[in-house]
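Chapter summary example: a protein plus nicotinamide-adenine-dinucleotide.
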Amino acid sequence: MNNQYPNTNLFIDGAWRIPDSGDSLEVLNPATEEVIGQVAKAGQADMDATLIAAQKGFETWSKTPALNRSRLMRKAADLIRERAHEIARIMVLEQGKPFFEASIETLLAADIFEWYAEEGRRAYGRVIPARSANVRQLSLREPVGVVAAFTPWNFPINQAVRKIAGAMAAGCSIIVKGPEETPASLAAIFTALNDAGVTSGVVNLLFGVPAEISSYLIAHPIVRKISFTGSTQVGKHLASLAGSHMKRITMELGGHAPALVFADADIQSAVSILAQNKFRNAGQVCVSPTRFLVQSDVYDTFLDQFVSATQQITVGNGLDPATKMGPLANDRRVSTMQQLILDSQEHGGKVAAGGDRIGQRGYFFTPTVVTDVPKHARVMNEEPFGPIAVVSRFDGIDEAIREANRLPYGLAAYAYTSSDRTAARLSSEIETGMLSINHHGLALPETPFGGVKDSGYGSEGGVEGLEAYLSTKFVTHAA
Ligand code: NAD
Protein backbone atom coordinates (compact mmCIF):
# COMPACT_ATOMS: atom_id res chain seq x y z
CA MET A 1 0.00 0.00 0.00
CA ASN A 2 1.35 3.43 -0.86
CA ASN A 3 2.00 6.23 1.63
CA GLN A 4 0.47 9.08 -0.34
CA TYR A 5 -1.79 11.30 1.69
CA PRO A 6 -3.94 14.13 0.30
CA ASN A 7 -4.14 17.65 1.73
CA THR A 8 -7.63 18.68 2.85
CA ASN A 9 -9.49 21.91 2.08
CA LEU A 10 -12.83 23.23 3.27
CA PHE A 11 -16.01 21.97 1.60
CA ILE A 12 -18.43 24.87 1.27
CA ASP A 13 -21.47 25.16 -0.97
CA GLY A 14 -20.65 22.08 -3.03
CA ALA A 15 -16.99 22.94 -3.72
CA TRP A 16 -13.56 22.44 -2.14
CA ARG A 17 -12.09 25.80 -1.17
CA ILE A 18 -8.89 27.07 0.36
CA PRO A 19 -9.57 29.26 3.38
CA ASP A 20 -9.74 33.02 2.95
CA SER A 21 -6.54 33.41 5.00
CA GLY A 22 -4.70 30.61 3.18
CA ASP A 23 -3.79 29.20 6.62
CA SER A 24 -3.39 25.50 7.29
CA LEU A 25 -2.46 23.04 10.04
CA GLU A 26 -0.12 20.05 9.87
CA VAL A 27 -1.35 16.46 9.86
CA LEU A 28 0.94 13.80 11.40
CA ASN A 29 1.12 10.06 10.92
CA PRO A 30 0.92 8.69 14.49
CA ALA A 31 2.93 5.60 13.50
CA THR A 32 5.94 7.65 12.33
CA GLU A 33 5.34 11.16 13.79
CA GLU A 34 6.07 12.51 10.28
CA VAL A 35 4.12 15.40 8.81
CA ILE A 36 2.11 13.82 6.00
CA GLY A 37 -0.08 16.68 4.89
CA GLN A 38 -1.96 19.87 5.63
CA VAL A 39 -5.52 20.70 6.56
CA ALA A 40 -7.10 24.07 5.85
CA LYS A 41 -7.83 26.34 8.81
CA ALA A 42 -11.12 28.21 8.54
CA GLY A 43 -11.55 31.80 9.70
CA GLN A 44 -14.64 33.92 10.19
CA ALA A 45 -15.09 34.74 6.48
CA ASP A 46 -15.13 31.00 5.69
CA MET A 47 -17.63 30.35 8.47
CA ASP A 48 -19.89 33.15 7.20
CA ALA A 49 -19.77 31.72 3.67
CA THR A 50 -20.60 28.26 5.08
CA LEU A 51 -23.55 29.53 7.09
CA ILE A 52 -25.05 31.23 4.03
CA ALA A 53 -24.49 28.08 1.95
CA ALA A 54 -26.03 25.85 4.63
CA GLN A 55 -29.11 28.09 4.90
CA LYS A 56 -29.57 27.97 1.13
CA GLY A 57 -28.93 24.20 1.17
CA PHE A 58 -31.58 23.77 3.85
CA GLU A 59 -34.18 25.70 1.87
CA THR A 60 -33.74 23.37 -1.12
CA TRP A 61 -33.12 20.09 0.70
CA SER A 62 -36.01 20.40 3.16
CA LYS A 63 -38.37 20.73 0.16
CA THR A 64 -36.76 17.88 -1.79
CA PRO A 65 -39.04 14.80 -1.63
CA ALA A 66 -37.85 12.18 0.86
CA LEU A 67 -37.64 9.64 -1.96
CA ASN A 68 -35.21 11.81 -3.93
CA ARG A 69 -33.12 12.51 -0.84
CA SER A 70 -33.04 8.78 -0.23
CA ARG A 71 -31.80 8.03 -3.76
CA LEU A 72 -28.91 10.47 -3.42
CA MET A 73 -27.90 9.04 -0.06
CA ARG A 74 -27.98 5.51 -1.48
CA LYS A 75 -25.83 6.62 -4.38
CA ALA A 76 -23.31 8.08 -1.91
CA ALA A 77 -23.32 4.77 -0.01
CA ASP A 78 -22.50 2.91 -3.25
CA LEU A 79 -19.61 5.28 -3.99
CA ILE A 80 -18.23 4.88 -0.46
CA ARG A 81 -18.26 1.09 -0.88
CA GLU A 82 -16.49 1.36 -4.24
CA ARG A 83 -13.83 3.60 -2.70
CA ALA A 84 -13.57 1.85 0.68
CA HIS A 85 -10.07 0.48 0.18
CA GLU A 86 -8.59 3.90 -0.61
CA ILE A 87 -10.54 5.71 2.13
CA ALA A 88 -9.44 3.12 4.70
CA ARG A 89 -5.80 3.46 3.61
CA ILE A 90 -5.98 7.23 4.15
CA MET A 91 -7.56 6.72 7.57
CA VAL A 92 -4.74 4.41 8.69
CA LEU A 93 -2.13 7.01 7.72
CA GLU A 94 -3.77 9.82 9.70
CA GLN A 95 -5.28 7.91 12.64
CA GLY A 96 -3.14 4.79 13.07
CA LYS A 97 -5.79 2.08 13.46
CA PRO A 98 -5.22 -1.25 11.65
CA PHE A 99 -6.36 -1.35 8.03
CA PHE A 100 -9.05 -3.98 8.74
CA GLU A 101 -10.63 -1.70 11.37
CA ALA A 102 -10.49 1.29 9.02
CA SER A 103 -12.17 -0.82 6.31
CA ILE A 104 -14.93 -1.91 8.69
CA GLU A 105 -15.52 1.72 9.68
CA THR A 106 -15.70 2.83 6.04
CA LEU A 107 -18.12 0.09 5.03
CA LEU A 108 -20.24 0.86 8.07
CA ALA A 109 -20.47 4.47 6.89
CA ALA A 110 -22.12 3.17 3.70
CA ASP A 111 -24.54 1.10 5.79
CA ILE A 112 -25.42 4.12 7.91
CA PHE A 113 -26.22 6.25 4.86
CA GLU A 114 -28.32 3.44 3.42
CA TRP A 115 -30.26 2.84 6.61
CA TYR A 116 -31.04 6.53 7.06
CA ALA A 117 -31.89 6.83 3.37
CA GLU A 118 -34.76 4.43 4.08
CA GLU A 119 -35.69 5.73 7.51
CA GLY A 120 -36.02 9.29 6.21
CA ARG A 121 -38.90 8.03 4.04
CA ARG A 122 -40.73 7.03 7.23
CA ALA A 123 -40.55 10.28 9.21
CA TYR A 124 -44.28 9.99 9.80
CA GLY A 125 -46.50 12.46 11.61
CA ARG A 126 -49.83 11.60 13.26
CA VAL A 127 -53.52 12.39 12.93
CA ILE A 128 -54.94 12.88 16.43
CA PRO A 129 -58.68 12.20 16.97
CA ALA A 130 -60.36 15.55 17.63
CA ARG A 131 -63.10 16.50 20.05
CA SER A 132 -65.32 17.98 17.30
CA ALA A 133 -66.37 16.41 14.01
CA ASN A 134 -65.23 19.43 11.98
CA VAL A 135 -61.71 19.61 13.46
CA ARG A 136 -58.65 17.87 12.08
CA GLN A 137 -55.60 17.67 14.35
CA LEU A 138 -52.21 16.93 12.85
CA SER A 139 -48.83 16.39 14.39
CA LEU A 140 -46.30 17.19 11.65
CA ARG A 141 -42.59 16.35 11.69
CA GLU A 142 -40.33 19.01 10.26
CA PRO A 143 -36.53 19.18 9.90
CA VAL A 144 -35.04 21.36 12.66
CA GLY A 145 -32.94 23.44 10.22
CA VAL A 146 -29.21 24.01 9.82
CA VAL A 147 -27.15 21.70 12.05
CA ALA A 148 -23.64 22.36 13.41
CA ALA A 149 -21.77 19.16 14.29
CA PHE A 150 -18.41 18.72 16.02
CA THR A 151 -16.71 15.38 15.61
CA PRO A 152 -13.50 13.79 16.96
CA TRP A 153 -10.55 11.85 15.61
CA ASN A 154 -11.09 8.35 17.03
CA PHE A 155 -13.57 7.29 14.34
CA PRO A 156 -12.79 10.01 11.81
CA ILE A 157 -15.60 8.99 9.47
CA ASN A 158 -18.35 7.49 11.53
CA GLN A 159 -18.58 9.99 14.36
CA ALA A 160 -19.48 12.43 11.59
CA VAL A 161 -21.50 10.11 9.34
CA ARG A 162 -23.97 9.26 12.11
CA LYS A 163 -24.76 12.97 12.36
CA ILE A 164 -24.66 13.72 8.62
CA ALA A 165 -26.93 10.80 7.66
CA GLY A 166 -29.50 11.53 10.39
CA ALA A 167 -29.59 15.23 9.49
CA MET A 168 -29.83 14.60 5.73
CA ALA A 169 -32.57 12.00 6.15
CA ALA A 170 -34.64 14.46 8.19
CA GLY A 171 -34.23 17.19 5.54
CA CYS A 172 -31.64 19.28 7.38
CA SER A 173 -28.42 20.75 6.05
CA ILE A 174 -25.28 20.37 8.13
CA ILE A 175 -21.95 22.05 8.84
CA VAL A 176 -19.41 19.59 10.24
CA LYS A 177 -16.37 20.85 12.11
CA GLY A 178 -14.27 17.77 11.51
CA PRO A 179 -11.21 16.43 13.35
CA GLU A 180 -8.08 18.42 12.43
CA GLU A 181 -5.84 15.43 13.32
CA THR A 182 -7.63 13.06 10.89
CA PRO A 183 -9.24 15.17 8.16
CA ALA A 184 -8.70 13.41 4.82
CA SER A 185 -10.77 10.25 5.28
CA LEU A 186 -13.78 12.35 6.26
CA ALA A 187 -13.10 14.64 3.30
CA ALA A 188 -13.38 11.55 1.06
CA ILE A 189 -16.91 11.00 2.39
CA PHE A 190 -17.84 14.57 1.43
CA THR A 191 -16.41 13.96 -2.04
CA ALA A 192 -18.60 10.86 -2.33
CA LEU A 193 -21.69 12.85 -1.28
CA ASN A 194 -20.83 15.54 -3.82
CA ASP A 195 -20.17 12.98 -6.59
CA ALA A 196 -23.52 11.36 -5.79
CA GLY A 197 -25.18 14.68 -6.65
CA VAL A 198 -26.19 15.95 -3.20
CA THR A 199 -27.42 19.54 -3.52
CA SER A 200 -24.83 22.28 -2.89
CA GLY A 201 -24.88 23.64 0.64
CA VAL A 202 -26.52 20.55 2.19
CA VAL A 203 -23.25 19.17 3.57
CA ASN A 204 -20.34 21.45 4.48
CA LEU A 205 -17.01 20.67 6.12
CA LEU A 206 -14.81 23.02 8.15
CA PHE A 207 -11.58 22.59 10.09
CA GLY A 208 -9.75 25.08 12.26
CA VAL A 209 -9.49 26.06 15.92
CA PRO A 210 -12.31 24.07 17.57
CA ALA A 211 -13.20 26.65 20.22
CA GLU A 212 -13.32 29.50 17.66
CA ILE A 213 -15.57 27.58 15.31
CA SER A 214 -17.91 26.21 17.97
CA SER A 215 -18.41 29.52 19.76
CA TYR A 216 -19.18 31.26 16.45
CA LEU A 217 -21.49 28.63 14.98
CA ILE A 218 -23.39 27.79 18.16
CA ALA A 219 -24.24 31.45 18.75
CA HIS A 220 -25.19 32.13 15.14
CA PRO A 221 -28.93 32.51 14.47
CA ILE A 222 -28.77 30.41 11.28
CA VAL A 223 -27.77 27.31 13.30
CA ARG A 224 -30.72 25.56 14.95
CA LYS A 225 -29.24 22.33 16.29
CA ILE A 226 -25.89 21.27 17.76
CA SER A 227 -24.49 17.76 17.87
CA PHE A 228 -21.17 17.03 19.58
CA THR A 229 -19.07 13.92 20.16
CA GLY A 230 -16.06 14.26 22.43
CA SER A 231 -15.05 14.64 26.05
CA THR A 232 -17.49 15.33 28.86
CA GLN A 233 -15.57 18.46 29.79
CA VAL A 234 -15.89 20.04 26.32
CA GLY A 235 -19.46 18.72 26.01
CA LYS A 236 -20.53 20.53 29.16
CA HIS A 237 -19.01 23.74 27.87
CA LEU A 238 -20.75 23.46 24.48
CA ALA A 239 -24.05 22.46 26.11
CA SER A 240 -23.98 25.58 28.23
CA LEU A 241 -23.23 27.73 25.16
CA ALA A 242 -26.08 26.06 23.29
CA GLY A 243 -28.36 26.51 26.29
CA SER A 244 -27.73 30.23 26.41
CA HIS A 245 -28.86 30.45 22.77
CA MET A 246 -31.74 27.97 23.23
CA LYS A 247 -30.38 25.57 20.62
CA ARG A 248 -31.33 21.90 20.53
CA ILE A 249 -28.44 19.56 21.31
CA THR A 250 -27.26 15.98 21.15
CA MET A 251 -24.24 15.21 23.33
CA GLU A 252 -22.29 11.97 22.90
CA LEU A 253 -19.59 12.19 25.57
CA GLY A 254 -17.11 10.14 27.52
CA GLY A 255 -17.58 6.86 29.34
CA HIS A 256 -15.86 4.48 31.73
CA ALA A 257 -17.61 1.24 30.86
CA PRO A 258 -17.89 -1.51 33.48
CA ALA A 259 -17.64 -5.10 32.22
CA LEU A 260 -19.15 -7.53 34.74
CA VAL A 261 -18.07 -11.15 34.51
CA PHE A 262 -20.12 -13.52 36.68
CA ALA A 263 -18.97 -16.97 37.82
CA ASP A 264 -21.68 -18.63 35.71
CA ALA A 265 -20.43 -17.01 32.47
CA ASP A 266 -18.67 -18.71 29.59
CA ILE A 267 -15.26 -17.37 30.65
CA GLN A 268 -13.41 -18.25 27.46
CA SER A 269 -15.95 -16.40 25.36
CA ALA A 270 -15.94 -13.40 27.76
CA VAL A 271 -12.13 -13.21 27.59
CA SER A 272 -12.03 -13.38 23.83
CA ILE A 273 -14.80 -10.79 23.20
CA LEU A 274 -13.61 -8.40 25.89
CA ALA A 275 -9.93 -8.53 24.86
CA GLN A 276 -10.87 -7.84 21.26
CA ASN A 277 -13.08 -4.91 22.18
CA LYS A 278 -10.85 -3.43 24.87
CA PHE A 279 -7.96 -3.04 22.46
CA ARG A 280 -9.95 -2.15 19.33
CA ASN A 281 -8.75 1.23 18.08
CA ALA A 282 -6.14 1.05 20.86
CA GLY A 283 -8.88 1.59 23.43
CA GLN A 284 -9.69 5.04 22.05
CA VAL A 285 -13.38 4.29 21.97
CA CYS A 286 -16.01 5.96 24.16
CA VAL A 287 -17.68 2.57 24.81
CA SER A 288 -14.40 0.74 25.46
CA PRO A 289 -14.70 -1.67 28.43
CA THR A 290 -12.46 -0.28 31.17
CA ARG A 291 -13.48 -1.44 34.65
CA PHE A 292 -13.42 -5.24 34.48
CA LEU A 293 -15.35 -6.53 37.50
CA VAL A 294 -14.91 -10.26 37.90
CA GLN A 295 -16.67 -12.50 40.43
CA SER A 296 -14.15 -13.85 42.97
CA ASP A 297 -14.71 -17.56 42.16
CA VAL A 298 -13.49 -17.08 38.56
CA TYR A 299 -11.17 -14.10 39.09
CA ASP A 300 -7.88 -16.00 38.76
CA THR A 301 -9.04 -18.01 35.74
CA PHE A 302 -10.32 -14.91 33.99
CA LEU A 303 -7.21 -12.87 34.77
CA ASP A 304 -4.81 -15.56 33.54
CA GLN A 305 -6.66 -15.96 30.26
CA PHE A 306 -7.20 -12.23 29.78
CA VAL A 307 -3.52 -11.40 30.39
CA SER A 308 -2.52 -14.10 27.94
CA ALA A 309 -4.97 -12.80 25.29
CA THR A 310 -3.65 -9.27 25.87
CA GLN A 311 -0.03 -10.33 25.45
CA GLN A 312 -0.84 -11.97 22.12
CA ILE A 313 -1.99 -8.72 20.51
CA THR A 314 0.45 -7.62 17.81
CA VAL A 315 1.12 -3.88 17.95
CA GLY A 316 2.44 -2.14 14.85
CA ASN A 317 1.85 0.11 11.89
CA GLY A 318 -1.79 -0.14 10.83
CA LEU A 319 -0.76 -0.77 7.22
CA ASP A 320 1.02 -3.99 8.22
CA PRO A 321 -1.48 -6.89 7.81
CA ALA A 322 -0.12 -8.56 10.99
CA THR A 323 -1.08 -5.57 13.14
CA LYS A 324 -3.96 -6.02 15.57
CA MET A 325 -3.45 -2.72 17.42
CA GLY A 326 -1.96 0.46 15.94
CA PRO A 327 -0.34 3.43 17.67
CA LEU A 328 -2.32 5.85 19.82
CA ALA A 329 -3.63 8.77 17.82
CA ASN A 330 -1.43 11.47 19.37
CA ASP A 331 1.21 12.16 22.01
CA ARG A 332 -1.42 13.40 24.53
CA ARG A 333 -2.76 9.86 24.77
CA VAL A 334 0.71 8.33 25.38
CA SER A 335 1.46 10.69 28.25
CA THR A 336 -2.02 10.13 29.72
CA MET A 337 -1.43 6.34 29.69
CA GLN A 338 1.94 6.77 31.41
CA GLN A 339 0.48 9.05 34.08
CA LEU A 340 -2.49 6.75 34.77
CA ILE A 341 -0.27 3.67 35.12
CA LEU A 342 2.19 5.47 37.40
CA ASP A 343 -0.65 6.76 39.56
CA SER A 344 -2.13 3.23 39.79
CA GLN A 345 1.22 1.86 40.93
CA GLU A 346 1.59 4.63 43.50
CA HIS A 347 -1.77 3.49 44.88
CA GLY A 348 -0.67 -0.16 45.12
CA GLY A 349 -1.81 -1.29 41.66
CA LYS A 350 0.09 -4.07 39.85
CA VAL A 351 0.81 -4.17 36.14
CA ALA A 352 -0.12 -7.67 34.94
CA ALA A 353 0.57 -6.99 31.25
CA GLY A 354 2.17 -4.17 29.23
CA GLY A 355 2.41 -0.77 30.86
CA ASP A 356 5.03 0.80 28.61
CA ARG A 357 5.54 2.93 25.57
CA ILE A 358 7.01 0.97 22.67
CA GLY A 359 10.05 2.48 20.91
CA GLN A 360 10.91 6.13 20.48
CA ARG A 361 9.14 6.88 17.24
CA GLY A 362 5.39 6.65 16.78
CA TYR A 363 2.83 6.71 19.58
CA PHE A 364 2.93 2.98 20.26
CA PHE A 365 1.90 1.62 23.63
CA THR A 366 1.58 -1.93 24.96
CA PRO A 367 -1.88 -3.36 25.60
CA THR A 368 -2.04 -3.08 29.37
CA VAL A 369 -3.76 -4.87 32.26
CA VAL A 370 -3.59 -3.54 35.81
CA THR A 371 -4.95 -5.17 38.95
CA ASP A 372 -5.35 -4.36 42.64
CA VAL A 373 -6.11 -0.74 41.89
CA PRO A 374 -8.09 1.00 44.64
CA LYS A 375 -11.25 2.92 43.75
CA HIS A 376 -9.72 6.30 44.43
CA ALA A 377 -6.86 5.89 41.90
CA ARG A 378 -7.22 8.07 38.79
CA VAL A 379 -7.71 5.23 36.33
CA MET A 380 -10.75 4.02 38.29
CA ASN A 381 -12.38 7.43 37.83
CA GLU A 382 -11.05 9.09 34.66
CA GLU A 383 -11.73 7.76 31.19
CA PRO A 384 -8.35 6.39 30.05
CA PHE A 385 -9.30 6.51 26.36
CA GLY A 386 -6.46 4.14 25.64
CA PRO A 387 -5.35 0.49 25.94
CA ILE A 388 -5.69 -0.01 29.71
CA ALA A 389 -7.94 -2.63 31.32
CA VAL A 390 -8.35 -2.49 35.10
CA VAL A 391 -9.37 -5.83 36.59
CA SER A 392 -10.99 -5.99 40.04
CA ARG A 393 -12.97 -8.62 41.92
CA PHE A 394 -16.48 -8.64 43.40
CA ASP A 395 -18.43 -11.17 45.49
CA GLY A 396 -22.15 -10.59 45.01
CA ILE A 397 -24.34 -8.91 42.39
CA ASP A 398 -25.24 -5.97 44.68
CA GLU A 399 -21.58 -5.06 45.02
CA ALA A 400 -21.08 -5.34 41.25
CA ILE A 401 -24.05 -3.08 40.48
CA ARG A 402 -22.92 -0.53 43.07
CA GLU A 403 -19.47 -0.35 41.49
CA ALA A 404 -20.88 -0.21 37.95
CA ASN A 405 -23.01 2.79 38.97
CA ARG A 406 -20.39 4.52 41.12
CA LEU A 407 -19.10 6.96 38.49
CA PRO A 408 -20.91 9.92 36.99
CA TYR A 409 -20.54 8.31 33.53
CA GLY A 410 -23.30 6.18 32.02
CA LEU A 411 -22.51 5.35 28.41
CA ALA A 412 -21.96 1.61 27.90
CA ALA A 413 -21.86 -1.42 30.19
CA TYR A 414 -21.16 -5.10 29.50
CA ALA A 415 -22.09 -8.26 31.34
CA TYR A 416 -21.28 -11.94 30.96
CA THR A 417 -23.60 -14.40 32.71
CA SER A 418 -25.65 -17.49 31.88
CA SER A 419 -28.37 -16.48 34.34
CA ASP A 420 -31.48 -14.82 32.89
CA ARG A 421 -32.31 -13.58 36.34
CA THR A 422 -28.95 -11.81 36.68
CA ALA A 423 -29.31 -10.38 33.16
CA ALA A 424 -32.78 -9.04 34.00
CA ARG A 425 -31.54 -7.36 37.18
CA LEU A 426 -28.61 -5.75 35.38
CA SER A 427 -30.92 -4.56 32.59
CA SER A 428 -33.05 -2.68 35.06
CA GLU A 429 -30.46 -1.53 37.61
CA ILE A 430 -27.34 -0.48 35.72
CA GLU A 431 -27.36 3.26 35.02
CA THR A 432 -26.25 3.24 31.42
CA GLY A 433 -27.34 4.29 27.96
CA MET A 434 -26.38 0.89 26.49
CA LEU A 435 -25.96 -2.59 27.96
CA SER A 436 -24.55 -5.49 25.98
CA ILE A 437 -24.93 -8.95 27.54
CA ASN A 438 -22.84 -11.98 26.48
CA HIS A 439 -21.68 -10.30 23.28
CA HIS A 440 -20.53 -6.93 21.98
CA GLY A 441 -23.46 -5.57 20.03
CA LEU A 442 -23.32 -1.76 20.01
CA ALA A 443 -23.23 0.98 17.38
CA LEU A 444 -25.24 -0.54 14.54
CA PRO A 445 -27.02 1.86 12.17
CA GLU A 446 -30.46 0.63 13.28
CA THR A 447 -29.89 0.69 17.06
CA PRO A 448 -29.80 3.72 19.38
CA PHE A 449 -26.42 4.84 20.66
CA GLY A 450 -26.07 7.33 23.49
CA GLY A 451 -25.54 7.85 27.20
CA VAL A 452 -27.02 9.08 30.44
CA LYS A 453 -25.57 11.12 33.34
CA ASP A 454 -22.25 12.80 32.42
CA SER A 455 -22.05 10.73 29.23
CA GLY A 456 -24.52 13.07 27.58
CA TYR A 457 -28.04 12.95 26.21
CA GLY A 458 -29.84 12.14 23.01
CA SER A 459 -29.20 9.18 20.74
CA GLU A 460 -27.53 8.63 17.43
CA GLY A 461 -28.52 5.60 15.39
CA GLY A 462 -31.91 4.00 15.10
CA VAL A 463 -35.15 5.93 14.79
CA GLU A 464 -33.97 7.94 17.79
CA GLY A 465 -31.13 9.29 15.65
CA LEU A 466 -33.64 10.63 13.14
CA GLU A 467 -35.82 12.15 15.87
CA ALA A 468 -32.83 14.23 16.90
CA TYR A 469 -33.18 16.26 13.69
CA LEU A 470 -36.96 16.62 13.64
CA SER A 471 -39.21 19.06 15.41
CA THR A 472 -42.94 18.72 15.98
CA LYS A 473 -45.55 21.13 14.68
CA PHE A 474 -49.13 20.74 15.83
CA VAL A 475 -51.79 21.95 13.39
CA THR A 476 -55.47 22.04 14.27
CA HIS A 477 -57.91 22.94 11.52
CA ALA A 478 -61.63 23.58 11.86
CA ALA A 479 -63.49 23.18 8.56
P1 NAD B 1 -10.27 17.31 23.84
O1 NAD B 1 -11.21 17.34 24.99
O2 NAD B 1 -9.34 18.46 23.64
O3 NAD B 1 -11.06 17.13 22.47
C1 NAD B 1 -12.04 16.16 22.28
C2 NAD B 1 -12.76 16.56 20.98
O4 NAD B 1 -13.45 17.77 21.20
C3 NAD B 1 -11.81 16.85 19.82
O5 NAD B 1 -12.41 16.37 18.64
C4 NAD B 1 -11.69 18.37 19.77
O6 NAD B 1 -11.49 18.87 18.47
C5 NAD B 1 -13.05 18.78 20.27
N1 NAD B 1 -13.05 20.05 20.96
C6 NAD B 1 -12.23 20.45 21.96
N2 NAD B 1 -12.56 21.69 22.36
C7 NAD B 1 -13.62 22.08 21.60
C8 NAD B 1 -14.42 23.25 21.53
N3 NAD B 1 -14.23 24.28 22.37
N4 NAD B 1 -15.41 23.29 20.61
C9 NAD B 1 -15.65 22.26 19.78
N5 NAD B 1 -14.92 21.12 19.79
C10 NAD B 1 -13.93 21.04 20.69
O7 NAD B 1 -9.44 16.02 24.00
P2 NAD B 1 -8.57 15.12 23.06
O8 NAD B 1 -7.18 15.08 23.63
O9 NAD B 1 -8.70 15.38 21.61
O10 NAD B 1 -9.28 13.76 23.40
C11 NAD B 1 -9.18 13.28 24.70
C12 NAD B 1 -10.49 13.08 25.37
O11 NAD B 1 -11.60 13.37 24.56
C13 NAD B 1 -10.60 11.62 25.71
O12 NAD B 1 -10.13 11.40 27.00
C14 NAD B 1 -12.05 11.33 25.58
O13 NAD B 1 -12.68 11.50 26.83
C15 NAD B 1 -12.60 12.40 24.70
N6 NAD B 1 -12.98 11.91 23.37
C16 NAD B 1 -14.15 11.26 23.30
C17 NAD B 1 -14.56 10.77 22.09
C18 NAD B 1 -15.85 10.02 21.99
O14 NAD B 1 -16.01 9.22 21.09
N7 NAD B 1 -16.82 10.27 22.88
C19 NAD B 1 -13.76 10.93 20.97
C20 NAD B 1 -12.56 11.62 21.08
C21 NAD B 1 -12.17 12.12 22.30
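Key point: The mean pLDDT is 98.
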